[in-house]
Amino acid sequence: MGGVTPDRDPAGSIELARFAVELATGAAAEVRRALAALSGGDMRTDAKSTATDLVTATDRASEQWLVERILTARPGDGVLGEEGADRAGSSGVRWVLDPIDGTVNFVLGLPAYAVSVAAEVDGIVVAGAVCNVASGELFRARLGGGAYLYDQPLTGPRSVPLSRAVIGTGFGYDASRRARQIAVVAELLPQVADIRRIGAASLDLCSVAAGRLDGYFEAGLNPWDYAAGALVAAEAGCVVTGLRGREPSTVMTVAAGTSCATELTTLLEVLGADDVL
Ligand code: IPD
Ligand code: CA
């Protein structure tokens, strides 16, 4: 992956990127196996933060599979996972895991859900892999090493102004937050070509990297939703940012092609898209 020799890679990002791919593709295979074992039977769901924020046994099993692999291969590493994994570690490396991003799509059988794996070194994301479970598509990136769909380099979206741009977004699970988010979208929609709500933030970010969306924004994401996808988008040459000069974060994550990024962030600031949480 990339042309960096190990001695020029003190953070070990080449090995972390390789392992991130192994983890994301391996967990995606586990999720596919679990789905096949259900063979059309009922998928039991539990509610988390709200009645519509769902988790299944497969989300939990995928996270457990990931954490076991990581701690067997690298016992000193830390982990943070959506379904509860939280371990500090001692090596300076922490894995940020979404065992199924797009759980509602998974439950419905809509083929847009992914395993997202990112590796941080001293708090900086240096490697990421996002595997679409249904299609098998693998997006991957290494800090300074480019972004790829399988082995095809990604270069971000076409060059269009905001008025021609198709923009992805997403909504949180809390009803009052969703009301504020859709008010922003109502103002935005007449000023762009169209809007998409795919339902998996990691795939939204990778879609911007792959030029399938011209831009994407969402308030309220958690690190496991955006850590890997944001690196894929950034390494594809996209602008990845928060609003008002901030870094991408839970408050706001924006990714867009260079042709419309400034127009998009300026408009989102005017609309107060970062004031919805
Ligand atoms: C959700 C998805 C969704 C986004 C939500 C996330 P989950 O993650 O990424 O697209 O709009 O903000 O919480 O719950 O399916 O892992
Ligand atoms: Ca999830």
Structure description:
The strands form three sheets. An eight-stranded mixed β-sheet has the order 4-3-5-6-7-8-9-10, with helices on both faces. The chain starts with 12 loop residues before the first helix and ends in a 6-residue tail after the last helix. By secondary structure, it is an alpha+beta fold. It is 35% helix and 24% strand. The site of calcium ion has 6 residues, from strand 5.
Q: What is the number of beta strands?
A: 15
Query: How are the strands ordered across the major sheet?
Result: 4-3-5-6-7-8-9-10
Largest sheet: 8 strands, mixed
Strand content range: 15-25%
Unreliable stretches (pLDDT < 50, length at least 5) are: none
Q: What is the rounded distance between the termini?
A: 38 Å
Q: What's the rounded overall pLDDT mean? A: 95
Tell me which ligands are bound. Answer: D-MYO-inositol-1-phosphate, calcium ion
Q: Helix fraction?
A: 25-40%
Shape: globular
Element order: H for helix, E for strand: HEEHEEEHEEEEEEHEHEHEEH
How is this fold's topology laid out?
Layout: H1 13-38, E1 45-47, E2 54-56, H2 57-73, E3 78-81, E4 86-87, E5 93-101, H3 103-108, E6 114-121, E7 124-132, E8 138-142, E9 146-149, E10 152-153, E11 166-169, H4 175-188, E12 194-196, H5 201-209, E13 215-218, H6 223-235, E14 239-241, E15 253-256, H7 261-271
Parallel strand pairs: 3-5, 11-12, 11-13
Antiparallel strand pairs: 1-2, 3-4, 5-6, 6-7, 7-8, 8-9, 9-10, 13-15, 14-15
Helix pairs in contact: 1-2, 5-6
The chain binds D-MYO-inositol-1-phosphate and calcium ion (CA).
